[in-house]
Design a protein that fits this description.
Serine Threonine Protein Phosphatase 5, Tetratricopeptide repeat; 3 domains; binds ligand DLZ
Length: 517
């Protein structure tokens, strides 16, 4: 940029807290003005978990201070005295400085992009692409073009090659295999000691924000007495390094495990930092690769981790932008049952589901198997309303922004995109949950029974799901075995299972759900 470039008002959204990318990359201290705003519209478009709002607001305020320290002039509107909407904040900002252009990095959500495109402004709006991601929208589209199914695995290999991550000298995958997923599926048998997570220091800014959020969002989920999140790039980096030092070796093995003892197991808990710009995804991958090169962990652990960041994260973003906005309306399996009110309280007798829901509501966190195979699986089997389930996921998780949440929920967990992302639905009975962890031992239901008062509801619901959706799966070779197993059952057995499943469903998720949220 030359010295003649016009003075800009640079809008920085709450999930764009990275000084080296996006609209801030070319911002000039002493010339351009930065605008940040805590606004009602963004804080209320779903019933966000209070951890998410507190995390965002505190991280934004810390980021503002770091920009001021670097010599920037920052206009910052605080909640709730500030602004109703981003547009209102921008108009106020423009009236307070002499900027002749508004510069914005592309937002992470289609909803916000549409809104911004409609803004009536006294100055031109200059877009900057979001270069924090490792694959651009065009790159993803080019990869997807002409493919019938968009399997993450092939996109992931492209990314590994592009960034030369976990490759040998000849450009082949380290260790001879691209994917070590089969080493990453051990269940939890309480054999391993769990490391204590580092203590989070709550400074004055965070304390003030926590008070604000508790006051302004009294009906939102989230136990703020247990606030545990870092709010600066330095803290996020400390958590990454702690994960590499204390968890990475066992992360891979227990990636899919479910445990009574811990909401975290050996997971990294860094997705929220990546998603708001406090950590850089490529650097995170390189750090984990280095840990493997230095012998600190197995290849399967490093690969399992890198696959999530370099593969999965970029892949879901590609799907989101390629299909927006129509993707959000997909409902391939016609799932319309209302979301039961206990999704907002965790009040259920299914132990695994209760644990996953309670930690989700209290902490804004559940790991991927809890999201996919416990909560998502229940929603899939019960045929819960796709829109309502997606909105719930968007609200309750600290790391949820629509670009990542929507494909993960609608496509991956609910199969509502008809198989664009997943080669088969992630439907499972209670046996899977039993294998992966120790919730069943503490549950009032037994995974060995399909019908009767003690039977794990996942079992009959699983067969009901297979029965009701068989026409969707007839041509899917990966569903041949469950379909065959269902057909092998006698008519009487099938009828008994279906009848039991219906009664369970009416009890757990009534089709007419008075008072549902
Ligand atoms: C999630 C969120 C919340 C709760 N509040 C704000 C806010 O007050 N100001 C802001 O700039 N961003 C906020 N965000 C993040 C935005 O919702 C996010 O930038 C868009 O969803 C695009 O990804």
């Amino acid at each position: 940029m030359t010295a003649m470039a016009p003075r800009a008002l640079v809008l920085v959204l709450g999930d764009q807290l990275d000084p080296h990318h996006g609209a801030l990359k070319e911002a000039r201290p002493g010339v351009d003005t930065i605008l940040m705003a805590e606004v009602v519209e963004e804080a209320t478009y779903v019933r966000h978990n209070r951890h998410k709002i507190a995390f965002l607001f505190s991280a934004m305020r810390h980021f503002r201070n770091s920009l001021i320290e670097r010599g920037f002039s920052v206009l910052y509107y605080s909640y709730p005295d500030g602004m109703k909407s981003l547009q209102q904040a921008v108009l106020a900002g423009l009236s307070q400085c002499d900027a002749t252009v508004l510069r914005c990095c592309e937002p992470g959500e289609y909803r916000v992009l549409q809104d911004m495109r409609d803004w009536q402004l006294p100055v031109p709006l200059e877009w900057v692409s979001d270069d924090r991601f490792l694959a651009s929208g065009e790159e993803f589209r080019a990869w997807a073009q002409g493919r019938k199914q968009l399997r993450m695995e092939y996109f992931y290999r492209l990314m590994r090659r592009k960034y030369r991550v976990l490759l040998d000298e000849g450009g082949n995958p380290a260790g001879g295999k691209w994917n070590y997923d089969s080493d990453n599926r051990q269940g939890w048998r309480n054999k391993e000691e769990l490391p204590d997570r580092p203590h989070t220091t709550i400074d004055d800014i965070t304390a003030e924000v926590i008070e604000l959020v508790a006051r302004e969002f009294p009906d939102n989920p989230g136990d703020l007495d247990r606030f545990y999140l870092g709010v600066t790039a330095e803290q996020a980096e400390d958590y990454l390094q702690w994960f590499i030092g204390h968890c990475l070796t066992r992360f891979g093995r227990y990636q899919d495990a479910l445990a009574e003892e811990s909401p975290w197991l050996f997971h990294a808990l860094i997705s929220m930092y990546l998603n708001v710009g406090l950590l850089d995804p490529l650097r995170v991958c390189r750090e984990v690769e280095r840990a493997w090169q230095e012998g600190c962990c197995d290849l399967s652990a490093a690969e399992g981790f890198i696959r999530q960041v370099l593969g999965w994260r970029e892949y879901v973003r590609g799907i989101y932008w390629m299909t927006a906005p129509e993707y959000a309306a997909r409902n391939a399996l016609d799932a319309h049952r209302p979301l039961p009110p206990w999704f907002w309280s965790g009040d259920t007798e299914l132990r695994c589901l209760e644990a996953a829901l309670r930690q989700t509501l209290d902490l804004g966190y559940a790991h991927h198997i809890q999201r996919l195979m416990v909560i998502g699986n229940f929603a899939l089997l019960a045929g819960l309303n796709v829109r309502e389930v997606c909105d719930w996921y968007l609200a309750v998780y600290v790391d949820a922004f629509e670009w990542v949440e929507l494909p993960n929920t609608l496509g991956m967990a609910l199969y509502a995109d008809g198989g664009l992302m997943a080669s088969k639905p992630y439907a499972a009975s209670g046996k899977y949950i039993q294998r992966q962890g120790n919730h069943c031992a503490a549950c009032r239901y037994t995974p060995a029974r399909v019908t009767g008062p003690d039977a794990c509801p996942y079992n009959s619901l699983y067969w009901r799901f297979i029965h009701r959706n068989n026409k969707h799966f007839n041509n899917n070779s990966r569903m041949a075995l469950p379909l065959k197993n269902w057909q092998r059952k006698s008519n009487e057995e099938q009828a008994a299972i279906l009848q039991w499943a219906d009664s369970q469903l009416e009890h757990l998720a009534p089709s007419k759900c008075l008072g549902s949220e």
